[in-house]
Amino acid sequence: MDEEPVTIKLTHDQAFVLSDWLHEVMMRSDKLDAIVPDRAVWSGICTISGTLETGLAEIFMPDYEGRLEQARQRLLDAMSGDEDEEASEGISRAPSGDDVSG
Q1: Sign of dihedral through CA atoms 70, 54, 98, 78?
Q2: What is the rounded distance in angstroms from the CA atom of residue 98 to the CA atom of residue 102?
């Protein structure tokens, strides 16, 4: 079966932070087994991880940790701004089943 590829668009900060998280759960721990017990899902996860790793120069930079923290903070600030907008418009966002905390 010939399948059309799917394109996922992320900001650079999103890609960087996600790449770090994937590396942590895949390479430095056994967390992926606990989070994703269906090994068939790993195919997509490994493809995403490999694509991110080959596309991010930051992973080879000596100030990796500082850059990662800055990217995380920008993402958190952007998310906070979204919540502030929703609050001012009277919109509340209840946690969904997709929310993951580590």
Answers
A1: positive
A2: 13
